[in-house]
Specification:
Elements (H helix, E strand, L loop, with lengths): L9 E9 L13 H10 L4 E4 L8 H7 L6 E9 L5 E5 L3 H14 L7 H4 L3 E3 L5 E4 L12 H10 L3 E4 L9 H5 L10 E4 L5 H7 L7 E3 L14 E5 L4 H9 L5 E4 L12
Parallel strand pairs: 1-2, 2-3, 7-8, 8-9
Antiparallel strand pairs: 1-10, 3-4, 4-7, 5-6, 10-11
Helix pairs in contact: 1-2
Length: 264
C-alpha cells in the first residue's frame, strides 16, 4: 500500500470564509447558485460557507456545487460569549447542523431587526427563497471561547480564530491576547493586513496563518485566498496541510494577484 505522503499532491486555492444571504450583513444576491458560479469564475477549488451562528444554507450550496468541481466546506461563524468570531469547518453538513442545534440553544434571545441588520434568507440550491430566519443571528451565544472550540472539535471540525487583526469581533480585540492552551487549528487574517506584517505582529502565537475574503457580496469572493498543497480538496487534507504533515502545507498568496506567491 502506498504511503499517504507519497500520494500525488496538487495546489488548490481556497476561500474559507464566505457568507450567504442567510447572514444579515450579506447582500441578497449571495445565493447558492450565484456563489458557486462566482467561486468557479475566480478559479477557486474550495470555499467554506460560514454564516453567522447558522448553517441553514450550507446544504443548499453543497447541492448547488455538485458536479461543478468546486468543493464546499460546510461551516459556521460562531460568536462566542466574549463576542469573538470563531470559524467552524466540517467535512459533512450533518456535523455543522449538529453544531447549529447547540448554537441555537445558546443564542442570544430576541428577533432579528430586518430594517437594522438585514434579511436572513434561507435559500434552496436553485436560489429559491425557502423561508426567512427570524433569530437574532448577529447576536452572541453564551458559549465561551474554550467551550466553542471544544464543541467544534467534538464534532470532528476545525476551529479557526477569525480575522484576528481586526479591531472588533476577534479574539485579540475582545481579550487582548490568545489564551494559553487554546486549541485553534489556525488563525485567520483579513485583507486589511499584509501577510508579512501579520507574521511579524503575531509571531508569538504558534498557529498556522491563513487568509480569507470574509465575503458578504459576490465581488468579494476569492479576493483573499489561501493555497494549500494537498492530495484532494477535503477537510482531512486541509487538516494535514494546517499541521504541515505528509508534505501537505499552506502556500500563502498576495491579495492583489492570487496567482503570485507571497515571498515576504
Amino acid at each position: 500500500m502506498a504511503d499517504k505522503g507519497s500520494e500525488a499532491l496538487r495546489v488548490v486555492a481556497a476561500d474559507l470564509h464566505v457568507h450567504t444571504c442567510l447572514s444579515p450583513c450579506a447582500t441578497l444576491d449571495m445565493t447558492p447558485m450565484k456563489i458557486v458560479k462566482e467561486a468557479r469564475k475566480k478559479g477557486l477549488t474550495i470555499i467554506a460557507i460560514t454564516d453567522h451562528n447558522s448553517a441553514e444554507n450550507a446544504g443548499s450550496v453543497v447541492a448547488a456545487a455538485r458536479e461543478t468541481g468546486l468543493r464546499i466546506i460546510p461551516g459556521m461563524e460562531v460568536t462566542t460569549s466574549e463576542e469573538a468570531h470563531i470559524i467552524a469547518l466540517f467535512g459533512e453538513v450533518e456535523n455543522v447542523l449538529s453544531l447549529q442545534e447547540l448554537v441555537y440553544r445558546k443564542l442570544q434571545g430576541g428577533e432579528n431587526n430586518e430594517d437594522l441588520f438585514g434579511l436572513q434568507v434561507v435559500a434552496s440550491e436553485l436560489d429559491e427563497v425557502e423561508t426567512i430566519n427570524r433569530r437574532l443571528l448577529i447576536g452572541a451565544t453564551s458559549l465561551g471561547l474554550e467551550e466553542a472550540v471544544e464543541e467544534i472539535h467534538g464534532r470532528g471540525g476545525l476551529a479557526v480564530a477569525a480575522h484576528i487583526d481586526r479591531q472588533s469581533f476577534s479574539v485579540l480585540s475582545q481579550l487582548g491576547f490568545i489564551p494559553e492552551g487554546m486549541a485553534f487549528d489556525a488563525v485567520e487574517i483579513s485583507k486589511g493586513m499584509a501577510l508579512g506584517d501579520a507574521r511579524k505582529q503575531f509571531s508569538e502565537y504558534n498557529f498556522p496563518l491563513i487568509t480569507s475574503s470574509d465575503a458578504h457580496g459576490l465581488e468579494e469572493i476569492g479576493t483573499c485566498r489561501t493555497r494549500f498543497q494537498v492530495a484532494s480538496p477535503d477537510i482531512s487534507e486541509l487538516r494535514l496541510a494546517l499541521k504541515g504533515k505528509n508534505d501537505r502545507k499552506i502556500i500563502e498568496v498576495t491579495r492583489d494577484d492570487p496567482s503570485t506567491v507571497n515571498r515576504q
